[in-house]
Design brief:
The chain is an alpha/beta fold. Among the domains are: 96 residues, no CATH class; 93 residues, no CATH class. It is 24% helix and 18% strand. The protein has a seven-stranded mixed beta sheet with strand order 6-7-8-3-9-10-11, with helices on both faces. Helix 5 packs across helix 6. The two termini are 39 Å apart. The structure holds adenosine-5'-triphosphate, iron/sulfur cluster and magnesium ion. Magnesium ion binds next to helix 1. Iron/sulfur cluster (SF4) binds next to loops.
Length: 413
């Protein structure tokens, strides 16, 4: 729960100096409990497939995202998981207006923002910011950290008038656990984890309400991933952020998410609370994904069921009829070829009281326990996230030129 204050109007000026990041005390109408801050309905992105050099004609379409529905509530984290190529990044890009949807609606506080342009779009864009996957390529190597983090203020000068920008950027560096004195350094002087902290600071610069984080830790060393996840966790609580956290790492998603949506070939096939999805999955695809999660306990590992999926993921230019998972599903029947399963609570669980009562796009949904409980999930080489100090030193990161160790707050002279 939080007040929306200056973030929602696209003008009106942010607070000055170190109060830049504080949501507490901001004015505006507070959100009512339970209202989704974001409603995504039937969201689709189809890229045309063309043939011919001079006279291009469309011969088909890559249905990268093909009808995605979900809600995001204020202050919650929605994890989105799925194999490579299932459309996660395309959803993220549409949410932050880097791609225009082919169809569907993105309702931010009730208003469909997917078709906005000009000033109206600019005002809304400020409230939904993105943290990118690769901190090595997403930061301009020729810009100082101060210029990178402060760049959004060029487009939204009302958030930080020129005289206050340096202080605001230094506040942001401090918030993400970096030394504010290094504002004039360049990205190559930082380690991967530190660069991702810079990317996160840039994402926070406009005081957004929603952060869309697209695989924010998958390019980092396993030893650093947990620190960045803990940072995101802390920032969410501190600034009442709503998060969409995209990853293919199911253990990390479980740690950070309140709810989880599982994507397959452009659609969400199952969505529910983290306990519903991890402990009571009803969709065969979710069950197969979970059965592949590493388990540290040898006894639990020996007793868990491993589901091996056969065949490749079909091309998004040639999606199977009926259930799009049917070509790899061990339970597929004739009905699966003929009828598209809707994402809804399956009829068999509609009147039950069990955690299996959540949305699942399967004609023959049934509960299956494939993984041990939460504490037993593990990613090789990583300590449990709770054990990792944060914010902290990711370890000195030599620059790309192999010169100075990357500066962290803790290393400040
Ligand atoms: N501009 C484009 N033109 C044509 N096809 C595209 C374009 N962008 C993405 N695609 C296709 O859309 C599908 C979804 O891509 P997307 O990047 O959203 O997947 P992803 O789930 O983020 O994958 P990964 O886990 O590898 O990042 C892929 O098949 C991809 O090749
Ligand atoms: S609808 Fe049929 S093919 Fe699709 S997941 Fe369910 S059982 Fe498998
Ligand atoms: Mg991606």
């Amino acid at each position: 729960m939080h007040a929306d204050g200056d973030r929602n109007e696209g003008s009106g000026g942010g607070a000055a100096g170190s109060t830049l990041l504080s949501k507490a005390g901001e004015g505006g109408k507070p959100y009512a409990d339970g209202d989704p801050i974001l409603e995504v309905r039937g969201l689709a992105k189809h890229y045309p497939l063309t043939q011919g050099i001079l006279f291009k004609r469309q011969i088909g379409a890559v249905r990268a995202v093909d009808g995605v529905d979900f809600d995001l509530h204020a202050g919650e984290t929605l994890g989105i998981v799925g194999e490579s190529g299932c459309g996660k990044s395309t959803v993220a890009k549409m949410l932050v207006h880097l791609e225009r949807p082919t169809a569907g609606a993105i309702r931010y506080k009730g208003e469909d923002v997917s078709r906005l342009s000009g000033r109206a779009l600019k005002a809304v864009r400020r409230n939904i910011q993105m943290v990118f996957q690769d901190p090595y390529t997403s930061l301009n190597p020729r810009m100082t950290v101060g210029d990178i983090i402060g760049e959004p203020y060029e487009i939204h000068p009302e958030v930080a008038p020129k005289g206050s920008r340096r202080q605001k950027v230094q506040d942001l560096l401090d918030v993400v656990g970096l030394n504010p004195e290094y504002i004039n350094r360049y990205p190559h002087q930082f380690s991967g984890g530190q660069r991702q902290r810079i990317g996160i600071a840039r994402g926070l610069a406009l005081n957004p309400e929603i952060i869309v984080a697209d695989e924010p830790v998958s390019a980092l060393d396993v030893s650093v991933q947990a620190q960045v996840v803990n940072l995101l966790d802390r920032l969410q609580a501190e600034f009442s952020l709503s998060f969409i956290f995209i990853a293919h790492d199911l253990s990390i998603v479980r740690h950070i998410s309140d709810r989880v949506g599982v994507m397959y070939l452009g659609r969400i096939v199952e969505i529910g609370t983290d306990a519903e999805i991890y402990d009571h999955p009803t969709h065969p695809y979710t069950q197969a994904l979970l059965s592949a999660v590493p388990v540290p306990d040898p006894e639990a590992r020996a007793h868990r069921e491993r589901i091996i999926l056969h065949g490749d993921v079909p091309s998004p230019a040639n999606i199977p009829s009926g259930c799009r998972f049917r070509t790899r599903c061990w339970k597929a029947q004739e009905r699966c070829e003929l009828e598209v399963p809707l994402l809804a609570v399956p009829a068999e669980f509609r009147f039950s009281d069990t955690p299996a009562r959540h949305d699942s796009a399967c004609h023959f949904a049934e509960e299956k326990h494939v993984v041990p409980q939460e504490g037993e999930l593990e990613i090789p080489g990583r300590r449990p996230v709770e054990d990792v100090p944060e914010p902290g030193d990711d370890g000195p990161g030599p620059g790309d030129d192999g010169s100075q160790p990357g500066p962290t707050k803790d290393e400040a002279p």
